[in-house]
Amino acid sequence: ASFEDRLLTRWVEGEASRADQLFGMDGKNFDIIARTYLSDIRSEPVPGTTEVTYHVPLVDYLELCPKITGRYWRLVNRPVKAGWVRMDPDVGESSRQRTARLLKERVRTSLTADCASRIAKMDDAFASLFADPVDRILGLLSESVQAEMPMSAAVREDWPPCFESAVAELSQGINVNHTGRVFLAAMSRAMGHTPEVTISFFANAPDYSADTTTYQVNHIYERKYTPHGCAALKTGARCPVSFGDDRLCDQEWMTHPLKYLRAKQRRRYQEENQAEIQADESTAGTSQNRPIDVAESNELDDSS
Ligand code: SF4
User: Fold this and answer.
1) Angle at 141 between CA 162 and CA 3, to 5 degrees
2) Pocket around ligand 1: residues whose beta carbon is below 6 Å from it?
């Protein structure tokens, strides 16, 4: 994705998250709002309380739940009856708040499609009217992305594209699938990052929960998970390169992202060594040609 795409994704994520929060609080209008985003909705009062439990059509749920990570959202963990999925309260959220999380995915899709259609209608002259503010916002985003990931550029240059894309997507609020998340944590551990650094990679995930992420990352560190190989990442739709995109990834022996990392580190080490040798040689050459000044000449005389 281009930087502009990432900016759009971030803006959409912010708006969709705000909608999620506001919808979850609006008990009075929630049914009406929900019907604008879902094909239908049903509610049943919880006996002895003022709460209600919502049910959403299976067809909507099947479309939206793959976009949300977590045990709750797997269909096997949801009660389903006659084509309706029951949205029980969970992790401190009411049934309405859980349903609002589903609506967030529809809001996200709708905003993205709306923006794409408006952008498509803009001609260059119209777009140029927004060039200055857009450049300014892109600059701010670029600064914030660098601040979020305080990695040295040299180290980051060595990252395999699959790891880089998982980190970048999460930092832009794009959902990364289960394979991508487990790979990211296991690979980060293998690369020597502390659990805190690994946890920070997830901080902008759409469904981020500090407690859940800390628990899952610590589990991967304790069990010393081996990162997925290239074949598994390709099967899990987490290898972002096509043939010709990256020469290292095109090699026949490239079967694991750790091989990529080591090859990059070896190459960088060799280049740095070569540069040092050349610098030493040129210094030696300079000093051979340099005339010895009087002070230096005296020091040499004294020590002899
Ligand atoms: S080929 Fe392997 S190392 Fe390269 S991006 Fe794909 S999964 Fe990662």
Assistant:
1) 50
2) 160-162, 230, 233, 239, 241, 249, 254, 257, 260
